[in-house]
Design a protein that fits this description.
This protein has 198 residues and is α/β, with parallel strands linked by helices. It has 7 helices and 8 strands. It has helices at 17-24, 47-53, 69-74, 89-101, 117-130, 147-162, 174-177, and strands spanning 6-10, 36-37, 40-41, 54-57, 135-139, 166-170, 182-187, 190-196.
Length: 198
Amino acid sequence: MNCGELLGIVGPNGSGKSTLLKILAGHLSPKEGEVRLDDLALDQWDRKKFARKVAYLPQSVQAVFPYTVSEIVSQGRYPHQGSFGFMSRNDCGIIEQAMDWTHIRPFASRTLAELSGGERQRVAIARALANDPDILLADEPTGNLDTQTGGEIVSLLEQLNRAGQTIIMVTHNMAIAARAKRVLHMQDGRLTDSVVSD
């Protein structure tokens, strides 16, 4: 795919969409073949360097500990920090920008338990953006949200894409997929079609 592209992946439940995204994120290994990024197989990448290039947005975000929103977003900068884990002024600026992009600064001091589903998803997006990745992988970013909130999340992703962010998005919603420049169709674990929009 090309830099700055919004790519949609669609298909019926169980077709392998989320599995494919996890393989692209390096969370799973393919049964055969290989995935390459910048002409290097994923298993040859230094994990920290790879984490700076690719951010993964899961279907839902959970916190085992009662971290605040700002603490969760700050986790996105971990791949960029040195051995001592200190936040630089640049790190803080990127975190603040990610929170502004996603409009979550007003509840920066709250925990996830205090937020709605849409707000949680915005926090997850902000954490991914704080990583300042080249590629954002989004797995069903509107899957557990009502229509209005889901539309707001998709609009946010579109804004990010227009600003130059490369996004690969898995969705079961064809109306959402239609907003992508290119759509890949999956069936039974295989890509069956590719459609490019005008």
